[in-house]
Amino acid sequence: MQRSPSTRCSSRQALLSRWAASIRCFARSLVDGLARPAGFEPTTQARPLVLKNWQILWMMRLFPPLLFNRIRLVSLSPDLMHCRVRIAHSLLNRNLQGSVFGGTLFSAFDPFLPVLMWQIFARKGQKLEAWLKKAEIDYLKPSTGRMLIDFHL
């Protein structure tokens, strides 16, 4: 017996929806297993996530918006009060005039201060979310080479 195209389509959709539901269920069980290991008792106060300096360095180096814009966190002080960021001039972040795209410069300034503030307070045991509310850049001249940016708190 030959099925009509509409029956074939609906059975394919049903199969896909069952498959997606089973994948979601499997993913949920994995996340639940990672989030709550055996013998884990949830506390009323969640401790803030404290990262080591090398973890912050690699997290910021591999963060895709920074990685593809050739923005690299070069150094980080042990007390997180100072960091140095480098913007490499490459084909990935060059505009029509041959200088570094302004959005690349802006994205180099955006994430570092909130991350440093978040970790400074986390190391003191205080849970904090830091957001950069407003930023304004006055571009003085085009950047045609490598740039180093120093952040000091």
Provide key terms for this protein:
single chain, alpha+beta
Q: Please tally the helical runs, counting DSSP H or I stretches of 4 or more residues.
A: 5
Cα-based radius of gyration, to the nearest Å: 24 Å
Strand content: 5-15%
Largest sheet: 3 strands, antiparallel
From N to C, what is the helix and strand string? HHHEEHHE
Distance between the termini: 75 Å
From the structure provided, what is the oligomeric state, counting identical versus distinct chains?
single chain
Q: Unreliable segments (pLDDT under 50, ≥5 consecutive)?
A: none
The count of β-strands is 3
Helix content: 40-55%
**Main β-sheet, spatial strand arrangement:** 1-2-3
Global outline: flat
- Helix- and strand-based class? alpha+beta
Q: Report the average pLDDT across residues.
A: 80
How would you summarize this macromolecular structure in one to three sentences?
This protein has 153 residues and is of the alpha+beta class. It has 5 helices and 3 strands; from the N terminus they run H-H-H-E-E-H-H-E.
Walk me through this protein's architecture.
The protein has 153 residues and is an alpha+beta fold. It is built from five helices and three strands. It has helices at 5-35, 53-62, 64-68, 102-109, 112-123; strands at 71-76, 82-87, 147-152. The chain has a three-stranded antiparallel sheet with strand order 1-2-3. A hairpin with a 5-residue loop joins strand 1 (71-76) and strand 2 (82-87). The radius of gyration is 24 Å and the shape is flat.
